[in-house]
Amino acid sequence: MSSLAASTIAAELDPPIIELVPPRPTSPLILSSPHSGNVYPQSFLAASRLDARRLRKSEDCFVDELVSGAVGHGVPVLAARFPRAYLDVNREPYELDPGLFREPLPDYANTQSLRVVGGFGTLARVVSESEEIYRAPLKVADALARIDALYLPYHEALRRLIETTRRRVGSAILLDCHSMPSATGSNGRGGRADIVIGDRFGASADGKIVDALKTAFSAMGFECVMNRPYAGGFITEHYGRPALSVHAVQIEINRGLYMDEATLEKLPCFAEVRDRLVRALGEFAGSSSNQLQPPRLAAE
């Protein structure tokens, strides 16, 4: 693919990624907000059969704003500025739908994953209510340019933060931050908890860490449940390696807590919810080092 095409994409989104790093990181904790990007390239809007408001149905609106205050507690935050409808970094790099393209895909593309079949690959075919995004099939080269310009740099930055943190304090805890609809069904019925914590059913993080996170959120008045219906996506599964002292947990924040899901506007209580979340994250950041300390041996 053309390096010029990739550089053009990056320039249109300049900067495509926001990385907030405190002067003195003090915790193993790292925050990632991969789906809160709201800068929609004009070329993408022109190629879509949907208007900007309908495209935003897949956006984790305002999640970056909800959690960025954790920087004040010594926690780095990484956030995408590009929308997930344009390029989804919470996927394998080449989860691509053959029906989305004019030409055959490279042999290395994963065309059979459940996410691709559902229309939510690295380049999504639909938004959250199964509305088709594009007017016409795409060029494969355009998809590869997006991956080069956005996906690879995001994960490079995330890996760098994880490795730097692990070298500094001996371990890293990645908290991948998302939002979810307040209702469980398409009919708008069925309530969800305030926060769903996903640890891939115990595979991506030490249980003590997850318990401490749940305790911190609960202390701030948030109702939490584990793993259902969201156990963690690609980022959580890919980076969570407890045996290597890298723990990954996904959180899904109920949108009904802080925004009007119909108008996509903040509720008057937004600042209050944000402040409670940041206090919970700060408490967890302060205690997380203790959760990872090896047990002391009894005196002989």
Overview of the molecule:
- The protein contains 9 helices and 9 strands.
- It has helices spanning 3-12, 42-47, 52-55, 63-67, 114-117, 140-169, 207-219, 234-239, 270-291, and strands at 17-20, 29-33, 77-80, 172-180, 195-198, 224-226, 246-254, 259-260, 265-266.
- The protein has a single domain, classed as Zn-dependent exopeptidases (Aminopeptidase, 3-Layer(aba) Sandwich), CATH 3.40.630.
- The strands form 2 sheets. A 7-stranded mixed β-sheet has the order 1-3-2-4-7-5-6, sandwiched between helices.
- With 300 residues, it is α/β, with parallel strands linked by helices.
- Helices cover 33% and strands 14% of the residues.
How large a portion of the residues is in β-strands, by DSSP E? 5-15%
Q: Determine the mean pLDDT.
A: 93
What structural category characterises the helix and strand content?
A: alpha/beta
CATH superfamily membership: Zn-dependent exopeptidases
Q: Shape, please?
A: globular
Count the beta strands: 9
Distance between the termini: 64 Å
CATH architecture: 3-Layer(aba) Sandwich
Task: Give unreliable regions as ranges.
Answer: 294-300
Order of adjacent strands in the largest pleated sheet: 1-3-2-4-7-5-6
* CATH secondary-structure class: Alpha Beta
- Run of helices and strands: HEEHHHEHHEEHEHEEEH
Helical stretch tally: 9
**Number of structural units classed as domains:** 1
